[in-house]
Sequence to fold (261 residues):
Amino acid sequence: MAVRPWTREEVLLAINLYCKLPYARLTQRSAEVKDLARILGRTPSAISMRCCNYAQFDPKESNRVKGLSHVAKFDKAIWDEVNTDWERFAVECEQILKAINPLQNNAPQDREATSILDTEYPIGNDKEQTVRIRVGQQFFRETVLAAYNHQCCITGLHSDALLIASHIKPWKNSNPKTERTNPHNGLCLSPLYDKAFDAGFMTMDEECRIVFSPLLWDCASREVAQNFFRRYEGKKLFLPERFSPQQLFFEYHRRHIFKSK
Fold:
C-alpha cells in the first residue's frame, strides 16, 4: 500500500499540536494525539512520531530526547516559515481545523467546542485584526504553559488557573509577526511575579538568574519581602523543555522595563 504524503495543512496541525502539548504527552495514547489522528485520518502512532520529530528543531530538546527519526525537509521548510510569522501560523491552524472538522474543530487543543473564529465580534475594519490578536494570544498562552510543563518558572506552582503566560518584551512593544506570539518571548509565571516582572521590579540576568529592583524593598515589610522575593533572588529560573527564552528579549526588559534604581 502506498504511503499517503503529508500535506501542508497536516504538517501545520502537527506542529501546532507539538507546540501546545508537553513532550511527555506526545504519545499515541494521549487523547489530543488521538483526536488529531481521527481528524486527519491517520494513526495515533503516525501523529505521535511526526510531532516528536519536531524536537530536532529545538537545540535544547534535541539533546534531551533520543531515538528520533530524520525530519522531512518539507517539515523543516514549514517550521522555518512558522518562525517568520507566529500569529499567521496560529490563525491558519484555527482556519484549517474549522474547515476540516466543523463540528468539533478544537479537539486537539482540548478546548471549548466553539472556535475563536466563530466568536461574535463587532463588525468593522478592525474585526480581522481583533480575531488575529485573540487567536495569537490563545496560542501564546497554550504554547508557553506547555513549554514550562504548566509550572511557574520561579515557584513551581502548577495550577493553570494561577498561571500567566507573560511576555518578556511587552506585547505592545513587540513585532506582531516575530515577537508577540513567539513562545521564545514567554515566561510561565504566577500572578505576583507576573505583576512584578511587568512593573519592572524584577528581571533576569544573562544566566537567567532572578534579579530584584532595589525599589521593591520599599513596597513590603521585611517578612513579606523575605518570604516572597528575597528567597528567590539570584536563583535560576526553571527553564522550559522547549522554546527557551531568548536573551534579546531579556536584554530589552533589562534596558527598558527594569527599575534598576
